[in-house]
Amino acid sequence: MDADGQNSAAAGSALAPGGGVDVVDGVVLAVSDFDALLQITLFTLGVAALGTALIFPGGVALGWLLARKRWPGKAVVETVVALPLVMPPVATGLILLKLFGRRGPIGGWFESVFGLDLVFTWRAVVLAAAVMALPLLVRTARVAFEEVPVRLEHVARTLGAGPWRVFFTVSLPLAARGLWAGGVLAFARALGEFGATVMVAGFIPGQTVTLALGIYHHVQLGQDREAFVLLAISAALAFAAVSLSEWILRGRTRPRTE
Amino acid sequence: MKLVLERVQAVAGSFMLDVDLALQGRAIGLYGDSGAGKTTLLEVIAGLRRPERGCVRLGDTVLDDVARRQHVPAEARGIGYVPQDGALFPHLSVRQNLHYGRRPRAVSHRPALSLEAILSALDIADLIDRRVPGLSGGERQRVALARALLAAPHLLLLDEPLSSLDDAHKGAILPCLARIRDEFEVPILYVSHAADELFALCDHVVVLHRGQVSTSGSPGTIFERISVPGYRLAPRSPI
Questions:
Q1: Which chain A residues touch B81 with a CB distance below 8 Å?
Q2: B93-123 pLDDT, tens per residue?
Q3: Residue B181: what are its φ and ψ, rounded to 5°?
Q4: Is A159 within 8 Å of B48 when comparing Cβ atoms?
């Protein structure tokens, strides 16, 4: 089967555990099955955490570059990074599908080097979560670094600190709260990712089903009770993540020298 | 100390600094209105802003030579910089701030700049375990001065260090600055709006106006000239 062209429903049926389990019956996601609920919840938390962790170092570095440096192409990079915020998520998913599919430039390379498919696997769920969360992280990181007074970095340099030491001993610690808050926001965004995920990872029970995909699936089947259970879990996780982000930001002591 | 800025031009946004200066002395004052270019000039000397043209030398060391593409980065210049608010690192303790740029090896050649001597001279020994946010304005300035001195600088740039302090704190810190100049033998380039500070500390004053040197001389001469009604800071055009 052509990985690029797989249809999510077909993939769901074909790859359901046990081969004979029909997801249309709702058996795989039955909310009476605590293990299935736990699996979906943990899987969602896991891919969101992994996606956030993957983009965190690069997102922080890009936020710093945007806040502190002038370089050719800066405006273009800034716009490209922000695109997933404003484009329809399914459009972003389609782009990812074409880039990371087995015949795509990146997916083809990945498969030839590592012998692994990206799309329609759990890796694609992580990829979609990471790409959709990146703009939030970069924007928050940029603001966090912009709030660090430049004169503190200047003084550090006159005290003999090179650029790396200035970054790790002044800029990063003073921006830390903003960066953590950005990381939590990115994680929250990754938790709720749906449109890009369904395009690039499909609906494969036990492999790519997140809370958001599960809710959609049950609503499609008219299984409101199951959908609402997943919705409650999803809302609780989102509430916790946003509250944590707000708590971190509220506790932020702006760099003060007065 | 001999600091030479040879036909130096530097741009900061729409502002252009254009100076040709040779400074020598224990304490040089830089005087001028807001926007005259005093801070831009300090940034060029400190290596925090690259000039577009010209050459900067401290003693025999070339710090910037645009024509020869020479630029010594700020961290390698050995020039201390204390901005208006001291710019202490708020996430570090006073002790950590003091040790941030400390160079024990360099200080071993200049015993006057030992930690004990500086803590005593600036009267900050009892502040060393405090956190920065709990310090008063005057305490912050003294810690910032000590931190800059512990890096054993060849030149100390002070950008209006007393402007945010009340008279009592100013009165306490001015003698500290005089001790830095005399006992520690660290030359000072001192930016201020206040004539009394420049009188108290400097043996030479340079007046900047809109990015150019307007006049220079001893504090007495300069402020006598400036106090004359109708005197204009703008440099006279060459005839």
A1: 154-155, 158
A2: 999 999 998 877 666 677 677 888 888 888 8
A3: -65, -45
A4: no
A151: contact with B, CB 8 A cutoff: yes
CB B206 within 8 A of CB B29: yes
Set of chain B residues whose Cβ sits within 8 Å of the Cβ of A160? 75-76, 101, 103, 151
- Residue A101 tokens, joined: 């599919």
Of A82, A154, A4, nearest in space to B47 by CA? A154
Residue of A nearest to B91 (CA): A174
For B61-97, letters b (16+ CB in 10 Å) and e give eebbbbeeeebbebbebbbbbbbbbbbbbbbbbbebb
Please list the residues that pair with B188 across neighbouring strands. B27, B156
Q: Is A172 on the interface with B (CB under 8 A)?
A: no
For residue A86, the Cα-to-chain-centroid distance in whole angstroms is 15
- What domains appear along chain A, each with residue ranges and CATH number? 3-10+31-249 (1.10.3720.10)
What digits encode the pLDDT tens for the residues A123-176? 999 999 999 999 999 999 999 999 999 999 999 999 999 999 999 999 999 999
In this prediction the pTM is: 0.82
